[in-house]
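User: Can you fold this complex?
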Amino acid sequence: MRRMMMRTSPTGGLSLPAQVLLYLALAAGAVVMMMPFVWMASTACKPDVELNKIPVRWLPENPVCLGNLLQLYTTSPHFNRYMLNSALVTAGRTLGQLITCSLAAYGFARFRFPGRDVIFALCLGLLMVPFQAILIPEYMLIRKLGWLNTFRALIVPGMFSAFALFLLRQAFLQIPLEIEEAAIIDGANPLRVLWHITLPLSVPALAAFAVITVQAAWNDFLYPLVVSSTPDTRVVTIGIALLQGERRTPMNLLMMGSFLATLPMLALFVLLQRYFIAGISMGGVKR
Amino acid sequence: MRSALLRWLGPTPLSRRHALWGMALVAPNVLGLMFFFGIPVLMAFSTSFQRWNAITPPEFIGFTNFRRLVDDPNFHQAFVNTLKLLALVVPGEVVLALLVAVMLNQPLRARNLFRTAYFLPVVTSTVAASVVWTSIFQPRYGSLSNLLAPLGLGEVRWLVDPGLVLIPIAVVAIWQRIGFDMVLFLAGLQAIPAELYEAARIDGAGRWQRFRHVTLPLLSPTTFLVVVLAVINGFQIFDQVYIMTLRTVPGGVGGSATTLTYYLYRRAFTNSEFGYASAVALVLFAAILLVTVFQLRIQRFWVYYEAGEA
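Assistant: Here's the predicted assembly.
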């Protein structure tokens, strides 16, 4: 009994030296994990003259954050546009998946129709295919549709997902049938049941899926690299790659750009951390 | 004809209505998936038997693309680089993530704070992360060279030296995966019943023995999942290579950083050899599939499923 109580108290059960060692090891690891963020933020605020100083400055002596931000917009005049494009693409894909995947997940979870299990298996089979393996035919398809350099190309294919379908179906299956049946007997049609009963009861799963989708869409690089090459449809990851490719771009501006592109996801994560964790534990897959 | 269709849908009017609802609900997502991903999967096979430069119409050339792969030294190099990268990334991320997860699974204060620190890289864009790490690995003014300066290594050109370039790429990949694997490991660790540890303790098992004989076997289904996902992810490393070699020689000096994914991208979108690149893509897919199936086959030798759970 005494042992069990000790287990529930913080670091109970560990000797004092072991505790110290544990905290030290975890802190050292955390410092290494955080170091790139510190380096990014500090370099983003360094004036040009401090970039090439040896020994390296971990913090800027004369920070010029705002100046560098303005300088970034001079170097890459459409940077805000790229951020906005990324936001549009992210919103379009996420909303699209929320709609198509919750409808389909509900259909697969609660309805019987000919060929259902075969179709579902086919959809799951797509999960096995890595995107790189179909990158070229995907590009050919988009080209054939005349969608290169359009928002349609960046958004529409991303509105469908086998992964979200699988995840949401699992969530819907956990809702007791009786709750839905009561509404069906009252004469509500399936869309009303889905909207008023199933979806509200699945909010944690929907949120977990949404944050994972938002994160993947915002950070997507290879697909936009292939289907869009004009400034009006350029997303922020491509914008940063262009800055990186231009050898004259000084480090502080590169870091400022990376910082801006990272900020929305960091903010989202800090606010919705538990949904990120839940999303990964639920699916075990990131897509 | 009409009655046959009706019978196919269901025996009663009510069941037919039900079936139609189901089909209507799944239709948007299923049709979208089949159109945007199903068709490309089928096309992936056909294009790899063609020569196509995106200008003139595609031409069927049989197995020529695959025969060319056999003798293409650049392809061999990309394949070997991918395997080397896997050898660095997979053990690196799995061992570190397990270590962190076991430490975080202890009852301690500030647990969420630590978890956040280890997870933050996961939500960061790989492109931005690669840009930052490129700066860290800079030969003279990067923070790493500064930290290593006391060791007297001199100027290490991490991203230029063909023998070293895979290391920074692996570092970024590992850094971004630790948090992801850690979350899976933590979920697995929390599912291990506390009574088992109690029983082992009563039997006189020390800390290491409990880890070795209770934690590791009971965690092995999670470890299996983590390893499988790590390998699949490792095969697809692209952004890091693209970004980190962009300022020096794209793809690394002499192709030293070129992975399979990067190679197929370059062949298709720089050299306009779409057919040949499709053959590379097919090999990539086959390799991922083979390794995954192999792992599924050998899991019975090391993955422990409790009776009734498997």
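The longest helix of chain A spans residues 251-283. Residues 2-44 of chain A form one domain.
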